[in-house]
Amino acid sequence: MEKALFIVFAVVAVAAALNILFQRNPLYSALSLVGTLMALSAIYITLRAQFIAAIQIIVYAGAIMVLFVFVIMLLNAPKEGPHIDKQKGLRYLAIPFAGLLLAEAFYVIRSVDLAEMPATDSSSRAVGTTWSVGTSLFTDYLLPFEVTSVLILMAVVGAMVLARREGD
Amino acid sequence: MTTDILLEWIIKIAVVIGILLTAVAYLVLIERRILGFIQLRVGPNRVGPFGLLQPAADGLKFMFKEDIIPLTANKFLYVLAPTLILVPALMTFIVIPYGDSITIFGRTIPLHVTRFDVGLLYLLALASIGVYGLALAGWSSNNKYSLIGGLRASAQMISYELALGLSIVGVLIQAGSLDLVKIVEAQGGWYGLKWHVFYFQPLGYLVFFIAALAETNRIPFDLPEAEAELVAGYHVEYSSMKFAMFFMAEYANMITSASLGTTLFWGGWMGPGVERWPALSLVYFIVKVAIFLFIFIWIRSTMPRFRYDQLMRFGWKVLLPLALLNIVITATLVLITS
After folding, report:
1. CB contact (8 A) between residue A73 and residue B139
2. Tens digit of pLDDT for each residue in A123-132?
3. I need a surface site. Which of A149, B201, B256, B308 has the fewest CB within 10 A?
């Protein structure tokens, strides 16, 4: 059952991800990205990581991508594709970087302990529940958590300073 | 055993969606009757006794109207948008506990479709997905009124979602869970004084109620469809069943908001005598939700509409700080009393 669900959502996720690249219209690309995020969220649920699944939808699909769609609509992007002739040299640079990214991803996946990934423990304190995520954020990972929040606050203040017009 | 549970789920989902859709149809009728009553006129009372068959007549009319797709519209997104609004609106109801457990034919059946660890986050996630439908409907119609309506709707929903989410945090601190069933159970005892609206959360409820009104795009927050300036906003080009889908989604969202307010702040299905007769819990839940729906309609009939800058200023500079203040107050009180 879980395997079947995984296959369905994995196919959707990969198809939508490819669609992001092949679409010429930026709005369709953005909507495909929303599709990918939702399929990933469904895969998280099959792994019993409900909290991450819900947060994925709320933060990425519900907030960030809405702003993307919003901006694309406001800018009313031109129908023909973007001009990318100027950076032809960069195209060849992309191949080694893609290889590097894949190698990195492979290395990380190899080093993760996969034994307890689909948590079979269904108690309210199992890995992936709100309780376990919250507890580890506020105990073991308190410093990175707080540093990240300061970083985000700085970004917000910076954006406000930059967006503010002179004389306001 | 597994097929048993699966069957129970399917029956529950079918019953809940059926009841929800019927409730939506009758909510429209009740709203029109109450509006008529408050505005000293009759309202729709011709079809059937007291106009009770009016929803059927409306439904038939919607189906037989011509379904028009504007020539310059983006057809794919134009057809997709109403679905994107209606489906999340109907999916919300599976986590709301509408009663205690009852026993039928020797089988104990809890009166909620399902429960899980992040039930409340699931509701918030679906609410945030609904924005796409509005924005895409406005954009794909290729009409300036629709576009402005869609942009207004998405900006408003994003702004008020923050206040809505933060107003709930106080309840979460006290109940200690995101599971709606547990939140209801945490409000038991003390003859109803433990309902969150009395027990430390009156400010949270105020912010929640106003933000919920704004999330459902009701007067005084119906800027996205302001008839006087935008004709009808994001759904101006829609006709026939597609228009009906927007309407159904709006009323389904109203019912969800009222149920969520009841569940989080007014003790859910709690009430006197529930321990002895569990079936009473369903009655209490429905009565509470009905009262909130009546208040929604009452507000609609008596309030003027905000101006857009007032709406944004109110959301960001009044509601959001109030919600944050509520979190600080709640955390302090919980720390002192525990």
Report:
1. yes
2. 666 777 788 8
3. A149
